[in-house]
Design goal:
heterotrimer; A alpha/beta (437); B mainly alpha (302); C mainly alpha (309); A: 437 residues; alpha/beta; D-Maltodextrin-Binding Protein, domain 2; five-stranded mixed β-sheet; three-stranded antiparallel β-sheet; 20 helices; 11 strands; C: 309 residues; mainly alpha; MetI-like fold; 3% strand
């Protein structure tokens, strides 16, 4: 018996040796190894099917091979990458949401690739490009997708309950209350304390600039009047029970969208993808409208998410900076790549040429009832308010979840929650040695 | 620490612990009340299991619309979708889990065996200190160790490799504790002495005399460690960047957390969750005869 | 092993170096994967990150000595204390219920003439094999009134179920997952020590006309007390380290803060807010408290045991 055990142990050990030998070149790029063969790049992304887009590149560029390592999306991915970078294991390329860029830059994860990708500037809207330069001369990433906010609603149910599509937030509130009166078990939407990105987008629309830099000082204005207005607005709706107060992206929420318990959704241009998998029974019943406005007749919107492709300092150190930058540029500006991004990854590309061109001429299948979906989205996107991110968005976001979660559950005061969020953000900056003024 | 655990005052008067209910007792009527209460407990334990079995049969459309305990029609579609996701990476996750848990538990059983034997059968300076320090390891919250382990592993150039998950899983304070108890009970001192008198060297003595006697105990250590590694999430999550090296727990998590513009793939997660517990159930059923939980209660029959 | 049995001289003499050799692998692994990381964590807990200027651009951050400042702020953070309070409350609900149920089922299994014993035993043990993340995901579905079959049936019957994902219901929800996952394991531990008791013990009691209940209360339970102490100890440690379950339930509810349990706070600091230094300090504090509690508990039990005998 023991002989067999020992044999098995030895076999297992050999097996793992072989495996680890295979795996050792799967990590971060190693220049010595790459010198002989093609450059091998690793790309951390959470978007599904990104590997299929990389395949297109790999076929056409045998000298630079990109392998996509799919990650779990979410708040912890940023820290995971920072830790990896600190330990010298960062991937060569990474997908990062715009709000994470300052954090990544301040932790020395992303490299300045202005020399390699600067030429692509003209392909993007100014506001979008500003997010990848952080207002400096450097360029830290190439914009991949943008996510302007819009209002989605169930056309059939709006008709059934005699509701008008709201164009202002006042109308939105009135619509929510009217629906409650007509169908008490239904809600126009929910206020989700788990999605700080949406709240940030709504605050942007109202004119908030959460982080601004002047000289060497950061200014944090999370509790500025614009954000207070937004918080107060939703606070009122939640308090009266006019909208639901449970988080989004839960099975319960999926069901509510699917069976028409929630008949509207403030979301970004990527909503069709989410609805396709969360509410499959409602195909062809939704429509997109511009986000309700604070001032009647205006056409401003904010963003929820959106991401860029960054080149890491690790890649530059390993001598792969140029190759990685080349791929990042290709991925987000080349017509073939953009086509693959749109069709496979379901993103709304940041490149302006792709937004209006033939690529997006057909509406998403789920919205076949709205053939002008993408022209309309492009129209909405024009009014995207610029975002102002700082180096500790992650802290602000986690403070949002805790403070607003409690407030939403208790149907309490969102203003106090906002102050908590502001305070936590400022304190964290000070603790790290930032000058806050 | 050892005192409370090992000093259960039992010795020769043990009746053997049979695997089956006692048949010798008077064969009268069934005791219905205890039987029903036990079945009630079993039903409670099956509630989520039956749910996941039925939920895995539901297509995306059915998942949230049909009454949740009614089976659906989409199992094969779900299975096909799960298998084709990223070129069948799910099965790679399962294979990885099997590798991490299998190889890790095997090495763990080996190390626990040799350590437990030394602690049980030798008296030497520092013995109880060694044991207490090793056991204190079980009190360390894994999350405390995760980041330092990662940073150190990176320094050694092993982060994001199979080794980074395997190596830290080998040492199991719990396994050492079990092996020690088992060795104390299962290896009579006289046998060891007799072998020594025959001139056996210490290593040979361990290998050819002690180890065979410890096998049932080590099988138990193997099983516990297998489950512990299979179910581990934090260590692989932090160590690994390449999703082709993920174990199934981290893989499922990556299906749940897709980022804001991609909702969780519930049908895939549910089907994947069901499949991920099957190997463990099979393992326990298959090895039911070999493992010795009685180790845990200190009631080892020698 | 308060008083080790007399040792044969031969063992002491001839094995003088051998045991150290046998301990080699474990010592090496312990040093590399426990001691070194713990030391590193302590080191990190004394460090902090400081930025220059706006903190943008490369090399904007440097690591500096922080002295004990991470510790003072960890201890001053009221969330650590209230998190500990929540975990203790959760433990107070969980551990007695789980061990009570485990003891109860073990005693039932030990009753003569029980049918389907092997089946029940296996099924009650089954949840042990389910990873915490999977278990919490499954229960999460069952807790959400909108998608849960339990609530569906209750609504059909004209009743409304308890709100398990908010307020105090959350403790029930959490404890239930752990009870589900842990009862079977503890039941087996207790059951096996019941099986190891000599049968003569109850034969006499039965002849005296004791009922099975009386036998259980008067003979069996006192006899398996050491197993209960052991299961209590390990359940207590598992409770203090609760992590995967609240993390998985968190996205489903507004009521679970990111600092619900002390370990979740460590996770938030390290992995959401990116401050490994303060996370290291907090985790050193938690580890020290756990050590103190565990060894204190063992000392207490030992004293009791010694005083009793």
């Amino acid at each position: 018996m023991h002989r067999r055990l020992a044999l098995a142990a030895a076999a297992a050990l050999c097996g793992t040796l072989v495996l680890s030998a295979c795996s050792s070149d799967g990590g971060s790029g190693d220049s010595a190894k790459a010198a002989s063969g093609p450059v091998k790049l690793t790309f951390w992304a959470w978007a599904p099917n990104m590997d299929k887009v990389a395949e297109v590149w790999n076929k056409a560029h045998p000298e630079i091979q990109v392998s996509v390592l799919k990650q779990a999306g979410g708040d912890d991915l940023v820290t995971k990458t920072i830790t990896a970078a600190k330990a010298g294991n960062a991937p060569d390329l990474m997908q990062a949401e715009y709000q994470a860029l300052p954090t990544l830059v301040s932790n020395d994860v992303l490299a300045d690739v202005s020399k390699q990708v600067g030429g692509a500037k003209s392909q993007f809207a100014d506001g979008v490009w500003k997010q990848v330069t952080l207002g400096s001369d450097a360029v830290y990433a190439v914009p991949e997708d943008t996510a302007p906010l819009a209002f989605y609603y169930r056309q059939d149910l709006f008709e059934q309950y005699g509701l008008k599509v709201p164009t202002t937030w006042d109308e939105f509130a009135a619509t929510a209350r009217a629906l409650k009166q007509k169908a008490p078990d239904k809600s126009l939407t929910t206020f989700s304390a788990n999605d700080p990105g949406l709240f940030a987008g709504l605050a942007q629309q109202a004119g908030a600039k959460w982080w601004t830099a002047s000289g060497d000082n950061w200014k944090v204005a999370i509790d500025d009047p614009a954000t207070k207005k937004v918080a107060g607005f939703w606070s009122g709706l939640v308090k009266d029970g006019a909208v639901d107060n449970q988080p989004m992206y839960t099975p319960a929420w999926s069901k509510a969208l699917n069976d028409g318990t929630q008949i509207g959704w403030v979301s970004a241009v990527w909503a069709p993808g989410v609805l396709t998998s969360s509410a499959p029974d409602t195909k062809g019943k939704w429509a997109m409208a511009p986000l309700p406005q604070w001032e009647s007749g205006a056409s401003v919107t904010g963003s929820w998410g959106g991401s860029a492709t960054g080149v890491t300092t690790g890649a530059v150190k390993a001598g792969h900076g140029d190759a990685a930058a080349k791929f990042a540029t290709w991925l987000n500006t080349d017509p073939e790549a953009l086509a693959a991004l749109v069709q496979q990854v379901n993103v709304y590309p940041a490149a302006t040429s792709a937004q209006t061109g033939g690529l997006l001429s057909a509406a998403p299948e789920f919205f076949s009832n709205q053939p002008d979906f993408y022209p309309k989205a492009a129209e909405i996107a024009k009014g995207t308010a610029s975002a102002a991110w700082g180096p500790n968005v992650n802290v602000a976001y986690s403070a949002f979840k805790d403070a607003f979660g409690k407030a939403a559950q208790d149907k309490g005061d969102f203003g106090a929650a906002l102050s908590t969020m502001q305070q936590a953000t400022v304190e964290d900056l000070k603790k790290n040695g930032f000058q806050v003024g | 620490m050892s005192a409370t655990i090992t000093s259960t005052p039992r010795a020769s008067r043990h009746r053997p612990a049979p695997a089956l209910p006692r048949k010798g007792a008077a064969p009268r009527r069934t005791a219905w009340t205890p039987t029903l209460l036990l079945l009630l407990g079993a039903v409670y334990c099956l509630v989520p299991v039956i749910w996941v079995v039925t939920a895995a049969t539901k297509s995306r459309q059915e998942l949230f619309t049909t009454f949740t305990y009614a089976p659906g029609t989409g199992f094969w579609d779900n299975l096909a979708e799960l298998s084709s996701y990223r070129g069948g990476v799910y099965w790679q996750w399962m294979a990885n889990s099997a590798l991490y848990a299998g190889a890790g538990a095997l090495m763990s059983a080996a190390v626990s065996g040799v350590t437990g034997y030394a602690l049980a059968k030798y008296r030497f300076r520092g013995r109880s200190t060694v044991f207490n320090v090793l056991l204190a390891g079980v009190l360390m919250p894994p999350i405390t160790l995760a980041v330092p382990q990662y940073l150190l592993m990176s320094k050694a150039g092993l982060a994001d490799s199979y080794w980074s998950v395997l190596l830290p899983s080998i040492l199991s304070p719990y396994g050492i504790y079990l092996a020690r108890i088992y060795a104390e009970a299962a290896i009579p001192d006289e046998v060891v002495e007799a072998a020594r008198v025959d001139g056996a060297r210490e290593w040979r003595l361990f290998r050819s005399v002690a180890l065979p006697m410890m096998v049932p105990g080590l099988v138990t250590v193997f099983l516990f460690q297998f489950v512990a590694i299979w179910n581990n999430f934090l260590l692989p999550y932090i160590m690994l960047g390449d999703d082709h090296k993920f174990p199934v727990t981290v893989g499922l998590y990556s299906l749940l957390q897709q980022g804001a513009n991609e909702p969780a793939m519930y049908t895939l997660v549910i089907t994947g969750a069901l499949l991920s517990i099957l190997p463990l159930i099979a393992l326990f059923l298959g090895m039911q005869r070999y493992w010795r939980v009685d180790l845990l209660s200190g009631a080892v029959k020698s | 092993m308060a008083s080790p049995p007399p040792v044969p001289r031969a063992v002491r003499r001839r094995g003088s170096l051998a045991p150290y050799g046998f301990l080699g692998p474990a010592t090496l692994l312990f040093t590399l994967f426990f001691a070194l990381p713990i030391g590193f964590a302590v080191y990190l807990s004394l460090r902090a990150s400081r930025v220059k200027g706006l903190g943008l651009g490369s090399h904007a951050r440097t690591e500096v000595w922080a002295g004990l400042s991470n510790y003072t702020s960890a201890l001053a953070d009221s969330e650590l204390l209230s998190g500990s309070g929540r975990v203790l409350l959760y433990g107070a609900l969980l551990v007695p219920t789980m061990l009570g149920a485990a003891l109860f089922f073990a005693l039932l299994l030990d009753v003569p003439r029980v049918r389907f014993g092997a089946f029940s035993r296996l099924v009650i043990f089954l949840p042990y094999a389910v990873p915490g993340i999977v278990a919490s995901t499954l229960w999460g579905f069952l807790y959400l009134p909108q998608v849960s079959p339990g609530y569906y049936l209750l609504t059909r019957a004209g009743m409304s179920g308890p709100d398990l994902l908010h307020g105090n219901g959350l403790y029930l929800a959490m404890a239930n997952i752990a009870v589900w996952g842990g009862t079977g394991f503890n039941m087996i531990v207790i059951y096996t020590s019941l099986r190891a008791l000599p049968a003569e013990l109850y034969e006499a009691a039965r002849l005296d006309g004791c009922s099975e209940l009386q036998i259980a209360l008067r003979i069996k339970i006192p006899m398996v007390a050491p197993s209960l102490v052991l299961t209590f100890f390990f359940s207590m440690i598992a409770t203090l380290q609760v992590f995967a379950e609240p993390m998985t339930l968190k996205p489903l509810t507004n009521s679970m803060s990111s600092t619900w349990s002390p370990l979740m706070k460590v996770y938030r600091d390290a992995f959401v807010q990116g401050n490994i230094y303060s996370a290291a300090a907090t985790s050193v504090v938690i580890a020290a408290a756990t050590l103190l509690l565990s060894f204190g508990f063992l000392k207490l039990v030992n004293k009791r045991a010694n005083g009793g005998s």
